[in-house]
Amino acid sequence: MPSKFGIPVKQVPATLIGRLAVDRSYKGKGYGAITLAQALKQIRTISKISAIKIVVVDALNASAVSFYKNFGFLEFDDDPMRLFTTVAAIDLLNNP
What we know:
Number of strands: 4
Structural class: alpha+beta
Oligomer: single chain
Shape: globular
Number of helices: 3
Strand content: 15-25%
CATH topology: Aminopeptidase
């Protein structure tokens, strides 16, 4: 975890979203955003009965990194292709 979060432990309860992808013929039509939003909604629900604190994604390329950053995901200090967001941030996305 980036040190700015002040979490002194090396392990934080997390869930990993497998790589999301949209067929090239549907690219740019919002399906990726819809898919990610649905996954985050499900994770938020599950986090209410489990210990999940963060959501992790592994980006395939720089374009995917940008996509996830648009949803508030942040890069890990040691791997710019692995990003995370907190469950609390998901709540903010869903309740502006």
